[in-house]
Amino acid sequence: MKTRFTRALTRSLTLAAAGLLVSTSMASAQLRFWTTEEQPERLAKQEEMAKEFEAKTGTSVEVIPVTETELGTRATAAYAAGDLPDVIYLTLQYVLPWSEAGILDTEANNEVVNQLGKDTFAPAALSMADFDGEVAAVPSDGWTQMVLYRKDLFDEAGLEAPNTYANIVKAIEALHNPPEMYGFVAATKIDENFMSQVLEHVFLANGATPVAADGSVGFDKAKLVEALEFYKKLADASPPGDLYWKQSREVYFAGKAAMIIWSPFILDELAGLRDSAPPTINNDPTSGELASKTGVVTRLMGPSNPNGAAWGDIRYFGITNDADTDPAEEFVKFSLGEGYTSTLSIAPEGKFPVRHGTAENPDEFVKAWATLPVGVDRKKPLSELYDPAVITDIVSGLETANRWGVAEGQLAKASRIINSQVINRRVREFIDGERNADATADLINEEVSNIE
Predict the structure, then answer these.
(1) CB atoms within 10 A of CB 180
(2) How does DSSP assign 295-339, residue by residue?
(3) Quick one: which of 46, 92, 170, 172 could link to 237 by a disulfide (CB 3.0–4.6 Å)?
């Protein structure tokens, strides 16, 4: 196990060595890289990147696929055996726990971020990985949930973009005309994770979170009541029944919804590029008509949180404490620098650039990302499908990306609360009129406080 002392000693010896010796070390290095992007096409792209890096540096990289649900147990076992890979592509949920456990070399990861330039990264991606003042893992990419809306209808009615609770309510009042047009399609099916994510997005927008930095549990009641009352308005403007991602997409694709909340993985199918999920707003399943009429909001603001928030999923590169540190740092810098466009191209619709550019070219990677082809049965770049303003809105959500428990260092506790589905159940009962917002807020706080 590498300690900070041994790492510092190694670094000193390396710096004292001749440049030729450093180059020789790089050329003879062999890195192991764990990735959760294990689909064949995505794996092939990463193997191509590894070959490019080897051609550039002489360092070989073995790309090892790991199923995302097994990543935690695999890493724990490898750590115990002293056999961690050099670099791991990991999800947000592991960054802080693995830093505390000693799996990640936080000093090395922080060093990479500083060398690339902290101000070239989305601030939220850095703050989510903050560990005792260090950036514990290097932000790679991410995505945020979005409010998709019929911009053409908003423009015709003189409505502002649905980026606040108030603007959404105004839009519902103006556009809700069922069954021809529903103002919204809210998530109401309590046993679907989709409802959990949508609720967290809406609650975060108002600054309502169930956990505090000291480990205490319970929402600020005033913020929670505001969020509950707003969500009921969304549900009241939705079709009847148990609704989740499927109905949300179908109703919007049929041209019968003014607004929905969805992930960016809808962007290619919205533009008619996926035969299994075509837009039905007209008779052409390959049409981009609906995409051209759609606007996007990622940062949603509630009355008690004027800065707003976006529900975000960030991925990171993590150099481990068993790594061959110098070559591992170079590999991560390559993946976030010269090879960054290739990193994003693995799945552009779900890999927004958290590093916007370089000091010399601040928008370099955002512009390159917008030209990457998306789609399944047909492929086109996002820049051909959506206006530049939409592209900007999509990426800007990462500036305020958030999740319950991240800022407070209580992500594990927040995850247990979410997985209990207590909030989903009580919100649905409130929507159905079983109790008022005040009583529902009290009941939610009582029940989440009992979750171990």
Answers:
(1) 8
(2) EEE--EEETTEEEEEEEEEEEEEEEBTTS-HHHHHHHHHHHTTTT
(3) 172
Interatomic CA distance for residues 3 and 412, integer angstroms: 26
Give the mean pLDDT of the chain: 93
Convert the pLDDT of each residue in 28-85 to its tens digit.
Answer: 689 999 999 999 999 999 999 999 999 999 999 999 999 999 999 999 999 999 999 9
pTM of the model: 0.88
Which runs of consecutive H residues, i.e. helices, occur in 206-243? 221-236
Q: DSSP letter string over 147-190? A: EEEEHHHHHHHTPPPS-BHHHHHHHHHHH-BTTTBBS-B----T
**Cα–Cα dist 347/388, whole Å:** 20
Q: Cα-Cα-Cα-Cα dihedral of 357, 361, 364, 367, to 10°? A: 120
Compare 18 and 61 and report the one with higher pLDDT. Answer: 61
User: Which residues have a Cβ under 8 Å from the Cβ of 152 and sit 6 or more positions away?
Assistant: 293
**DSSP secondary structure code for residue 211 in this structure:** B
CA angle 106, 110, 116 (to 5 degrees): 150
Asked if residue 111 lies in contact with residue 56, where contact means CB atoms within 8 angstroms, the answer is no
C-alpha distances out from residue 101 to 80, 96, 169, 198, 340, Å: 11, 9, 46, 31, 29
Token pair recorded at residue 85: 């890979």
Is the backbone of residue 375 left (phi > 0), alpha (psi -120 to 50) or beta?
A: left
CA angle 67, 339, 368 (to 5 degrees): 105
| Token couple for 438 | 């005040």
Residue entry with tokens 């724990």 = 76
Task: Return d(Cα 215, Cα 120) in angstroms, integer.
Answer: 32
- What is the rounded CA–CA span in Å between residue 233 and residue 172? 9
